[in-house]
């Protein structure tokens, strides 16, 4: 991705008192592990592009029998407001329970609500948002409300809205316009209903995928006179912002939360470390111990997959093109091989390169009977699935997201999610991971809304390092972790401020 590097000077950046990292001897508000009653993640990652068409997970209420479009229904919440459009406002109670479950795994947002009490750093903020509407996003939206903002919200994906959660938000007074299974026309109508309101103009944008930003640019460019900033979360949306910036058309500051360090580490390394096993298990019921696995690519995602499989007793091989990552794989105890060398013997092949045609038809032809093939990278071209659509091969759908591809000699290959991202297609993403992203979004909004004139220009910025550190620090109490405080002498020795930032921007973690 091409980008203009922001020139932010994080050393000059000051955070308000309530937003300081708390050390071990300071009062902790959230030092207990949350009780995990009935914990289940109800959504896929909120970090995916708006074009993903995964189906969202379980819903208590099956509303498929009600075919009336929400646009044709007259609904009011219990306070008499009808400034929303959801599938069925009566589902609000179920949605509220889901939001309460999510709150327990989103300690940082709950801490923000407590710490900022009284200060209302978003007082006067009018935020228009376009994200997946899930229990986790609801915790974010209600946190923004608790910090003083007025919010209007639409979905960034036509399939991912949890109807009962949207209903709970509407019942709580949020102007939410979204339901699962919107048409394309509905999608833009919902966005427009959030923006085009008499007597209300947004002054902040929170976007996931760039569609909302694009709509305002196209239809209501004058609104940018009042807008203080855009916070964008997805790779796609960030890419669009950098293009606007390069063309000199970006007219407000924008914060790229996708590339903040904490988000990257959690989404790529830790999330994949957990969800690779979940995705494989749900689709194949397989046992991992003793299985031979080859992981293509030893970047953040590959490292997570390898660590999880090694811990389960699998024999893990790695392929790499980059000698640095290759050496890391060797030092971590994995055999570095070329795919050709192990393709006949492995039980599982996992791609995580972000590249194309990593597993070719030639590799697929040579695999042994029963080999499982899946992809954890962004693109569905890492495995050359198209090459398997030939007359001599038979495809058999054995389960949702599981195909057997059968060769003329009877050999079967097990293909998961047709080569699309395994974890997003076949498993869930832990709420705790989403908590990192949501906290980063909230802090980016607070920062852009409160920044003094001139701190940010019409450019794309990364979250200041100090705030990234703050996001991490807000999640530490969940583990009863005690952070060491620098002594004055040590801080002087290292040339650091005692309250951070603790690393230069180029530090790689
Ligand atoms: N599944 C998920 O939830 C999830 C989460 C985050 C990112 N991703 C996606 O996963 C992919 C990898 O992300 P990352 O953060 O690990 O990226 P990364 O750049 O850190 O790692 C990719 C690695 O693959 C190596 N590589 C490239 N071509 C190769 C080839 N032909 N053979 C072997 N190795 C090769 C690169 O050298 C690199 O080390 C990206 O497409 C990313 O968008 C997926």
From TrEMBL:
Q: What stretches pass through the bilayer?
A: none
- Native species: Xenopus laevis (African clawed frog)
Reaction(s) catalysed (UniProt annotation): S-adenosyl-L-homocysteine + H2O = L-homocysteine + adenosine
Q: Where does NAD(+) bind?
A: 299-304, 320, 423
- Alphabetical UniProt keywords: Hydrolase, NAD, One-carbon metabolism
Residue ranges of domain S-adenosyl-L-homocysteine hydrolase NAD binding in the record: 268-429
Q: Name one GO cellular component term.
A: cytosol
Task: Report the Gene3D superfamilies cross-referenced here.
Answer: Adenosylhomocysteinase-like (3.40.50.1480), NAD(P)-binding Rossmann-like Domain (3.40.50.720)
Family statement: Belongs to the adenosylhomocysteinase family.
Ranges of compositional bias, category Basic residues: 33-42
The organism's place on the tree of life at top rank: Eukaryota
Question: SUPFAM superfamilies annotated for this entry?
Answer: Formate/glycerate dehydrogenase catalytic domain-like, NAD(P)-binding Rossmann-fold domains
The record ties this protein, via InterPro entries, to: Adenosylhomocyst_ase-like_sf (IPR042172), Adenosylhomocysteinase-like (IPR000043), Ado_hCys_hydrolase_NAD-bd (IPR015878), NAD(P)-bd_dom_sf (IPR036291), S-Ado-L-homoCys_hydrolase_CS (IPR020082)
What EC number(s) are associated with this protein in UniProt? 3.13.2.1
Q: In which pathway does it act?
A: Amino-acid biosynthesis; L-homocysteine biosynthesis; L-homocysteine from S-adenosyl-L-homocysteine: step 1/1
**Cofactors that this protein relies on:** NAD(+)
- Show the ranges annotated as biased composition (Low complexity): 43-62
- Coiled-coil portions: none
A molecular function (GO) held by this record is: adenosylhomocysteinase activity
Tell me the residue numbers annotated for binding substrate: 134, 208, 233, 263, 267
Q: Which GO terms describe its biological process?
A: one-carbon metabolic process; S-adenosylmethionine cycle
What protein does this entry describe? Adenosylhomocysteinase
The ranges of region (Disordered) come to 25-82
Q: Report the co-factor binding details.
A: Binds 1 NAD(+) per subunit.
PANTHER family the UniProt entry points to: ADENOSYLHOMOCYSTEINASE, ADENOSYLHOMOCYSTEINASE 3
């Amino acid at each position: 991705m091409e980008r203009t590097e922001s020139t932010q000077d994080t050393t000059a950046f000051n955070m308000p008192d309530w937003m300081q990292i708390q050390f071990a001897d300071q009062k902790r508000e959230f030092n207990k592990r949350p009780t995990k009653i009935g914990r289940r993640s109800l959504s896929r990652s909120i970090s995916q592009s708006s074009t993903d068409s995964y189906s969202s997970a379980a819903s208590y209420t099956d509303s498929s029998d009600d075919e009336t479009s929400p646009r044709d229904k007259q609904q009011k919440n219990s306070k008499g407001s009808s400034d929303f459009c959801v599938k069925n406002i009566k589902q609000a109670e179920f949605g509220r329970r889901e939001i309460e479950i999510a709150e327990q795994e989103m300690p940082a947002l709950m801490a923000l609500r407590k710490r900022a009490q009284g200060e209302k750093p978003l007082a006067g903020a009018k935020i228009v948002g376009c994200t997946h509407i899930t229990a986790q996003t609801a915790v974010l939206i209600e946190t923004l409300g608790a910090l003083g903002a007025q919010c209007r919200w639409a979905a960034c994906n036509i399939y991912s809205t949890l109807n009962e959660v949207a209903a709970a938000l509407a019942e709580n007074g949020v102007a939410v316009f979204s339901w699962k299974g919107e048409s394309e026309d509905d999608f833009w109508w919902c966005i427009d209903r959030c923006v085009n309101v008499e007597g209300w103009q947004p002054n902040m944008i929170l976007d996931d995928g760039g569609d909302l930003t694009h709509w305002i640019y196209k239809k209501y460019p004058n609104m940018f006179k009042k807008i203080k900033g855009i916070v964008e979360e997805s790779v796609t949306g960030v890419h669009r912002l950098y293009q606007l910036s390069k063309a000199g058309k970006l007219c407000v500051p924008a914060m790229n939360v996708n590339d903040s360090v904490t988000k990257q580490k959690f989404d790529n390394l830790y999330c994949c470390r957990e969800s690779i096993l979940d995705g494989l298990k749900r689709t194949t019921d397989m046992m991992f111990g003793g299985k031979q696995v080859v992981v293509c690519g030893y970047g953040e995602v590959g490292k997570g997959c390898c660590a999880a499989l090694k811990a389960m007793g699998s024999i893990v091989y790695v392929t790499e093109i980059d000698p640095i990552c290759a050496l890391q794989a060797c030092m971590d105890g994995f055999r570095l091989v070329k795919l050709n060398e192990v393709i006949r013997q492995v039980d599982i092949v996992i791609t995580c390169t972000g590249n194309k045609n990593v597993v070719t038809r030639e590799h697929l032809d040579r695999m042994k009977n029963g080999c499982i093939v899946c992809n954890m990278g962004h693109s569905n071209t890492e495995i050359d699935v198209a090459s398997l659509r030939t007359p001599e091969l038979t495809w058999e759908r054995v389960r949702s997201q599981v195909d057997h591809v059968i060769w003329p000699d009877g050999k079967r290959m097990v293909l998961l999610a047709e080569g699309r991202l395994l974890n997003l297609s076949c498993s869930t993403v832990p709420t705790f991971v989403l908590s990192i992203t949501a906290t980063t979004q909230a802090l980016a909004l607070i920062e852009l809304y409160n920044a003094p004139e001139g701190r940010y220009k019409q450019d794309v910025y990364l979250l200041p390092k100090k705030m990234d550190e703050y996001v991490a620090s807000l999640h530490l109490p969940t583990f009863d972790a005690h952070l060491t405080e620098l002594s004055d002498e040590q801080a002087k020795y290292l040339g650091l401020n005692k309250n951070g930032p603790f690393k230069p921007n180029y530090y790689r973690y």
